Amino acid sequence: MVAEYRLNLFPYEDLVIYEIGAGNGTLMGDILDYIAAEDPEVYDRTRYRIIEISGRLQELQKGR
């Protein structure tokens, strides 16, 4: 994902990642941690969007 972003969009557009039904947000955290460690320049341009219908899980994810 990061390699594809660097080839096609960097530095002109942000990397926007969407996750549908993110649950407790573990995958989101792991992906963002990886990008931060491997490519800080891309991390600075990364935006993460969650689509979640559960109100309880929305509140949990906001806290993360």
Structure notes:
The radius of gyration is 13 Å and the shape is elongated. The mean pLDDT is 90. The chain has a two-stranded parallel ribbon. 6% of the residues are buried. Helix content is 53%, strand content 19%. It has 64 residues and is an alpha+beta fold.
User: What sequence of helices (H) and strands (E) makes up the elements?
Assistant: HEHHEH
Mean pLDDT: 90
Structural class comes to: alpha+beta
* Total beta strand runs: 2
Largest sheet: 2 strands, parallel
Query: Globular, elongated, flat, extended or rod-shaped: what is the shape?
Result: elongated
**Quaternary organization:** single chain
Main sheet: strand order: 1-2
**N→C terminal distance:** 23 Å
Q: In terms of per-residue confidence, which ranges show pLDDT below 50 for 5 or more consecutive residues?
A: none
Rg value: 13 Å
Q: State the share of residues found in helices, binned by percent.
A: 40-55%
Beta percentage is 15-25%
Separate helix tally: 4
Topology (SSEs and partners):
Blueprint: H1 2-8, E1 15-20, H2 26-38, H3 40-44, E2 46-51, H4 55-63
Question: What distinguishing features does this structure have?
Answer:
alpha+beta
Short structural summary:
With 64 residues, the chain is α+β, with helices and mostly antiparallel strands. It has helices at residues 2-8, 26-38, 40-44, 55-63; strands at 15-20, 46-51.
